[in-house]
Amino acid sequence: MIKETDETSPGPPTADPIIKQRRSLSIVWLVPIVALLIGGWLAYEAITERGPIITIKFATADGLEAGKTKVKYKSVDVGVVESIEIGENLSQVVLRVQLNKGAATYLTDKTKFWIVRARISASEVSGLSTLLGGAYIGVEPSVKGKPQRDFIGLETVPLVTSASKGKRFKLVAPRLGSLNPGSPIYFRQVRVGQVLDYRLEEKGQNVGVNIFIESPYDQFVRENTRFWLASGLDMQLTANGIRVDTDSVVSLMIGGLAFGTFSNDPQGQQVSENMQFKLYETHDEARDDQYTIRKNYYVEFFESIRGLSVGAPVEFRGIQIGSVSDIQLKVLPNQMNFSTMVGVTIERERLGLSAQVSKDLDIHIREMINEGLRVQLKTGNLLTGQLLVDVNYYPDAPRVDETKYNDLLVIPSLPSSSQAAIDGVTSIIKKIDKLPIEEIGQSLQGSLLGIEKLVNNPDLQQAMQSIRKILADVETTTHNLNADTMPEVTDTLEELHNLIQELKGWISADSPLQEDLLRSLQEIGKAARSINNLADMLDRHPEALIQGKTIEDQ
Asked: What is the value of pTM for the model shown?
């Protein structure tokens, strides 16, 4: 309906506007509403997609930067360092780290964090990528253990992670040697593991070394496996020359270990993880530990033992049967003198006497002593002068009475060959000292003076000249004899030979001379018989020389 407002104004009539109140929302408000919704959604997404925030404490933040340093697992970014602050006691730095979504499951008290920097050592080179990209934080997640948000980071990179396959073992040794974390472990000169860490035992008497053997080499660790230090250079002087033995150049530089099962040992069972083993100083010590039955004895020496030390071998006919275990001085009774008591450990199995043999080793040793068993010191190495204890039979050795020292049987000894030589030289020197050297010298001086006078005597010189002249004449005569007389002598010898041949013909059995001679001898025999008969008749009738021969005498 139109209402007039001014009746006097010309023109057509006008109507008043009617204003109605509407409660609809203007389209202008849609823009901020949509922005608000998007912002809320983004905030929700940010909150739901955001991972947990943790704190990590390190001794230093060298190489780390807030907002740039990443947290990586297997070279994949899983978080970033948001802030770095100094700890309350100024001894540590505290890192506030934002991790990716889904990391909360792996944050337990078993989870480990460490800083990865460039690391160059004798055993390995690692972290070279950090030279360009900077240091980062490594992580080893674990689902085992209790949930945790505050961590203390490792100061060194762990050598073995949970992803590494193999077994951990513990070694116990009286000293560490040159071992360090990362030192290699060898099996038949093949690298199969490494040293993880070490620490002193509670009482400080031994060192515990934790090692890791990689799979599948961990199957070679058995109940009777032995570990030994493979550090350094093993040089031995043998009959074939100098033998040098080392597992590798790396172990020579930074130390290392080796293990094995010796052929004399039976095949043992496989062992579980964290098994404890003894760590031996050398390969020979580990090998010799298979001889478990040992007996201790003493040997008394009355000479210097310089060059003999604890651990020196005890040999029987060149084969080691034990080692020196103790060296100490002993005061001789009623004398201001000393002898040296050397303790030796003899391993029964090395003598071929097994544990099944019922007879005690002391009884065997006593029987061997009665048969001439004695001990001597001998040089084991010509270069170093080290001595060894040599055991052998000496049947001509004098018998000795059984003695004991510290309740242990004493094996009798003999002076060493060098000591015997020294004693012989000493004896000769003593005999020489007893000789009247001064009188002999004076007598010798007088004899030399007499010889000098004789040599310088003019008559002797003249006689020598005469002898030279005679020798010259003899030489001339011999030459002439060879030149003139020898042909005549040869002719004479030939004539003499012919004469002898003729004489042989005359006196041969069938020669005429032999027959005539035989006949003459027969006639002479007959004449001799006649004379014999005549002499016999005259003996009986001497009157026949006067009266003549009668008929009765015939």
From this structure: 0.53
